[in-house]
Amino acid sequence: MVALTFYDGADCVGGNKFLLEAADTALFLDFGKNFSREALFFDDFMPPRATAGLCDYLELDLLPPLEGIYRPEYEMSGRAWEHCHEHPARRRLHLDGILLTHAHLDHSGYLSFLDTSTPIYSGLATALIAKAMQDTGRSGVSGEIAYALPRIETNGVLGTQRGSKDNPCPALLRPLILLEPEQPLAAEFLRASSSARSISGNLALHLPSGEAQAGNLRLRRYPVDHSIPGAGAFAIDTPSGWVVYTGDLRLHGSESAATRAFFRQAAALHPRALICEATRIIGEKGEEIVATTEEEVFDQACRLVRREKGLVIADFGPRNVVRLLSFLQAATDAGRQLVITDKDAYLLKALRLGDSRVPDPLTDSRIAVYREVRGSYAQWQTALLESFQASCPERLVTSADLRRSPGNYVVCFSYWDLQELVDIQPKDGLYIYSSCEAFNEEMAIDQERLLRWIDHFGLRPVGSLKAGEESRYAGPALHASGHIDTAGVIEMVETIRPRTLLPVHGEHREYYQQRFGGFCQVILPKRGERIILD
After folding, report:
1. Of 9, 26, 39, 379, which one's alpha carbon is 20 to 30 angstroms from that of 531?
2. Which domain holds residue 345?
């Protein structure tokens, strides 16, 4: 028997937290942050209280009410459990591991709360991205995915434990079981500190066969294509048969062959169940989705950059390295340098430790780093900027350089970098919006604000942006989704041929019943629902 409990991420996009229990083993399939649900209660100016541990999250049903799976200090001497004492799903659980499909926060963002002894099964690139994100991000109780800072409750308040000469209180690297061959330099990076506090913990365990044992269950990991490096799907061998979980994947990116290889390998397992994403299966009017490919985005970007005389700004999702490399080639073909942020440079350097195909920004003359004027720099920023200053100072680009020679560069900026335009003062140029359309009210408001900046500086926007109730669109398709389209879903299901199909991570899942109801059993899980597979 297999029990599947869908704590979040079933009938919405993001927040995947699916518990699989079989053979006295409990595994979570991802443990992500549900941005939309958290935004019902919090925003940037009123976040969950960092000093209250689990209390806010359990009170508002943002985390599963499962005693025994979280960091003990976050339980606030048991006070946190008073906030869900009547929850019908509250129980005690021993958790044997997390199967982490990729590093997007809607799949990984709540790992910070879990007990630091819980193994994380994943791929190397996912671990490197999580580490780079934490090194360069804001600290906080919800941001400790790769390693955990020592925290202690004092007088009812949770705080970071300060170190001393005799007791340095190092951060603790989470137990990583990486189903890929070992890369020695990558292992060093995972243990390397980006601040004054050191990092301790066992080195990651590498299993190059792609297969592991978690509790009493055997599992396999398969690389797939997505809009972030290192995405993978999992298959778990249970007493009821193989249960396959796709995570997020697609067929229209640069690694589509890996996704199709996964289809074939999953089909050979004759799976009892397939838990698959349903993000973009149909449109709002019931129409089938036909995805724009990454190759089409690259072709359009090349044409636009070649034709432009002034500054070009490329705006795309964070950690979308495939898109960054497309704009790198587009800039090179047009005789320009690609200017990236220090965070992007840090991420590229980390990923290169596991994949030599990723360019090294320190040695690749096509890449420059934007030097933002700041009052102070974090330790990781200081080290990165000093390495550039020592070896290639000409590739540290300032606002004055962009103002003086705008036609020499393509600049990778996003909404969070708009204030730099005040110093750059672009007189003319192109703003290429190469990210997804707004799909909620908060994103629409951000895009309206983005358009005001673009209009203020006389830039020409290209791409799909939302202004008020109307979509303001100019030019060709400039974004390829990270999610599989309608034809891809049909190919996936008809290739894998599961006995039971459970679509998740989507809002229009009724299509699966209409399209596949006569092909296999289709179950549409609901939030909080427990489903038994015999």
Report:
1. 39
2. 294-474
